[in-house]
Design goal:
Elements (H helix, E strand, L loop, with lengths): L12 H8 L7 H14 L1 H5 L10 H15 L3 E5 L7 H16 L3 E5 L3 H7 L2 E6 L2 E7 H6 L1 H7 L4 H8 L24 H16 L2 E12 L2 E12 L3 E5 L6 H9 L6 E6 L2 E2 L5 H6 L2 E3 L12 H8 L9 H6 L2 H20 L15 H15 L3 E5 L7 H18 L2 E5 L3 H7 L2 E6 L2 E6 L1 H5 L2 H8 L4 H4 L1
Parallel strand pairs: 1-2, 7-12, 7-13, 10-11, 11-12
Antiparallel strand pairs: 3-4, 5-6, 5-8, 8-9, 13-14
């Protein structure tokens, strides 16, 4: 089961599940029973029964891929990033179906960035770091190796103690860089005291991005239903919600990648509803994607240099052909900016590597670097921590805040990592089935009953942040 989701995008959900039962085509009773069990684990797949798999959200595709594996009953299943891009409640369901597959006699090998999730499933563990095997053996023995756990949880023994107690939290960090007793970084007391005044000041700042009654339907499915959003100057607005809630579709509508059915998008007071994606980018919108979209054959330095294209002083072909000195000066200026960004993002060791050689986490950081090079006024990030190890996630919050300070921009962020987004965002918007269900400071939104029921699956705020 590949991390990129192994589904047939042009087939419907029903057809994908039917294909998964091909080896048991002579046993229709088993196929029906197994399919019903999959739909019991993932009810949203029943709602999307006749929808093309390629039109599903990333999380729904992950559910479909795992459902196919359940029906196929393989002898050996390789799972790459089980929790990648999934809401907390969905991850809990995935644990159940993986255990059910294992109970059916399947051997499972799991590659997972979330250490606590892996430890909840596995009897044996292998820990790799920089291509070297640091540990192999029973999971219980790994928990006794505090030197290994410190390589994962940056705050050392405090987080190690939490792992030894079998905590269900994922030990990840928020954007503030402080740690508390449970190993998750949280804002300091001073930061928490200043937060209400800071948020009030942001709401009084000028509006940089607005959406009015955004609506988008795909066939009979309403993906976005009458959504209003407002982003103020200097604000970080977080979007959370179950898989399939319409979060990424909203980003696609704002950026112009998908035409909207009704509604308006306003950027810096200008209606950009009918502008192309490239025109919106030129006006200051920057966007990352769930899967980092970069050029695999370019080096890291070259990829960032492409992001600086708008800031190149000499763009003409003739001066370059003639080898005019001004061209060389312009290129040196670009390379100096590239090196500054590489140092800022901690990519210096990879500067001459090809993008295709980088790990998922390094590509994610590189993508953010190319967007920062573009110097947007509104930075839109779609699951920036997706595929990044816990240690890297701990550094991501401060990195994003540093990038925001450098650019002086506003941010709109989709994220399933609750410790990260609750510490990073000034305000949260929670969505479900394409509609806004809660909006406000992170602590208030995370306690909202409908958010807890549909998305988080826990009433304990400390488990979330």
């Amino acid at each position: 089961m590949p991390g990129g989701r192994g589904i047939f995008p042009t087939l419907t959900v029903a057809e994908n599940l039917r294909v998964a039962g091909w080896m048991y085509r002579g046993d229709s009773a088993y196929v029906r029973e197994a399919t019903e069990r999959v739909l019991g684990y993932f009810p949203v797949l029943r709602d999307r029964w006749h929808t093309a798999a390629g039109s599903l959200s990333g999380g729904e595709q992950q559910m479909l891929s795992l459902g196919q594996a359940f029906i196929a009953q393989p002898k050996l299943m390789l799972v790459d990033e089980l929790s990648l891009g999934l809401a907390p409640t969905v991850v809990e369901r995935l644990l159940g179906i993986v255990r059910a597959i294992h109970d059916n006699g399947t051997t499972i090998i799991l590659v997972e960035q979330s250490v606590n999730l892996a430890l909840r499933l596995a009897q044996r563990a292998f820990f790799l770091e920089k291509g070297e095997m640091r540990f192999s053996g029973p999971t219980a023995e790994l928990l006794e190796r505090t030197d290994i756990l410190r390589a994962v949880f940056l705050k050392g023994s405090v987080a190690v103690d939490e792992a030894l107690r079998g905590a269900d939290g994922d030990g990840r960090a928020d954007g503030d860089g402080r740690a508390d007793g449970d190993g998750a970084r949280r804002p300091s007391a001073a930061a928490r005291a200043d937060a209400p005044d800071h948020r009030a000041g942001l709401l009084a700042a000028p509006t940089v991005l607005e959406t009015h009654a955004l609506t988008k339907r795909f066939g009979g499915v309403t993906a976005v239903d009458d959504v209003d959003l407002t982003v103020h100057d200097g604000e970080i607005l977080g979007l959370i919600g179950p898989n399939g809630a319409g979060k990424t579709t909203i980003f696609d509508l704002v950026n112009g990648f998908v035409p909207l059915d009704s509604g308006r998008v306003v950027l810096h007071g200008h209606d950009i509803t009918h502008r192309t994606a490239s025109e919106r980018a030129a006006m200051g919108l920057g966007r990352s994607f769930q899967d980092a979209r970069l050029w695999p054959s370019l080096t890291v330095r070259e990829a960032i240099a492409v992001g600086l294209e708008r800031r190149v002083e000499v763009k003409g072909v003739v001066p370059a052909v003639l080898g005019m000195p001004i061209v060389a000066e312009s290129e040196r200026a670009v390379l100096a900016q590239v090196d500054d960004l590489i140092r800022l993002m901690g990519l210096w060791a990879f500067r001459n590597k090809f993008v295709g050689e980088l790990s998922t986490g390094s590509r994610r950081i590189l993508e953010i670097a190319t967007i920062v090079a573009h110097r947007p006024t509104v930075l839109i990030l779609d699951e920036p921590s997706s595929g990044i190890a816990q240690k890297e996630t701990e550094a991501l919050g401060p990195l994003l805040k540093q990038a925001q300070k450098l650019l002086g921009c506003s941010m709109l962020v989709i994220e399933h990592d609750m410790p990260l987004i609750s510490g990073l965002a000034d305000h949260l918007v929670a969505l479900d089935r394409g509609r806004v269900v809660a909006h406000g400071p992170p602590a208030d939104v995370l306690r909202h009953p409908q958010v807890v029921e549909s998305y988080l699956g826990t009433q304990d705020e400390h488990e979330l942040v």
